[in-house]
Input
Amino acid sequence: MNKKLLVLFVVIAILTVVFIGGRTLPKGVATADSDPMNHTISVTGEGYVEVVPDVSYLNFGVFFEDPDPAKAMDGLAIKANGIMDILLKQGIAKEKIKTTNLNLSPIYSYNPQTGKSTLEGYRASENFLVETKIEEAGRILSAIVKAGVNDIGGISFDVSNKEDLKLKAIENAMQNARAKADASLKNTNYKVTGIKSISIESINYPQPIFKSFMAGQSETNVPVQGGTLKVNVNVQVVFTFD
Output
């Protein structure tokens, strides 16, 4: 056998083997660039944290009606100040009390026989949003109803440590992504060696849960349960493998 023919056989034998990161694989098992940093797998990781809410928001209001608009506002001021005093005595800090609406509107009566509307007076109203601990919500609701609140909008729940929950959810999402990458490479000759890139695609904070409340429930403290809330996170991770 001459030297030229021998060299040709050697070249053909080399071309039938795929080299990946210093390892050899049978032809057709895997296709990758010879640069280990280009051996990548992209995975979406999903993570969430479920928690019991620790914050409640009470939405309520007071109104006062009078034929005279000025007297309607004066009557409202007396009732609203009384509600404020009750809230402060219940231990609610001023910065946790927010006026969300102040309104003065005419009151009309409609006569279907004549088709005419008659001005009967004015309604002055003010709505509040109060932040409190969940365990105190029932007691405060009962107290303000007894003090004259005549418009209950309901109660919603939230969490105070959203940033901590976000970080924990991201951690869980990363663990989920790594588990998916490992599962994808199972039963192969490859292992995850590092991370090329990470992208936090979405963070869904818990939406406050709303519950209705009847103003007539004022004789005893109203039982309030916040249930659970979730923080959801999706991450896109590009892993390197070899």
User: Anything to note?
Assistant: Residues 119 and 196 are 72 Å apart (CA to CA).
